[in-house]
Amino acid sequence: MAAIIIKYQLADGVTREQFEEWVTKVDQPAMRGLSRVESFNTYRVSGKLLGEGDPSVTYVELFDVPDIDGFTGEDMPGDVVQGVMGEFMGMVKDPEFLVAEMV
Question: 26-59: per-residue pLDDT in tens?
Fold first, then answer.
């Protein structure tokens, strides 16, 4: 099973309230409705566990995807993901999309 991890900041002018309403009403229902997404959660970063200063990101998303090839080959180019991604990219800045495998 692979995990997709997305780390990002909110774009200038996008409030936490606006973004989190969109996440709970649009993003999570759409992405959780995909058969290849076993789980999907969005986390607001509230601080660092160790070290000083501000965290480098304000949000992290974690997807568990058993079939990463099917997800990237079929789901990502599909209407659901493309529609969500279009809205998402307008609300965030500096997103980093990572694919990870459990050790």
Answer: 999 999 999 999 999 999 999 999 999 999 999 9
Report how far apart, in Å, the C-alpha atoms of 86 and of each of 44, 53, 54, 67, 79 are.
21, 32, 28, 23, 10
Evaluate whether 30 touches 83 at the Cβ level (below 8 Å).
Answer: yes
pTM value > 0.70: yes
Residue tagged 């200038």 (tokens): 12
Q: Tokens 């509230």 correspond to what residue?
A: 46
The DSSP element (H or E) to which 8 belongs, if any, is strand 2-10
Q: Tell me if 37 sits within 8 A of 65, measured CB to CB.
A: yes
pLDDT digits 0-9 by tens, 80-97:
999 999 999 999 999 999
Find all residues with CB under 8 Å of 21, minimum gap 6, and list them. Answer: none
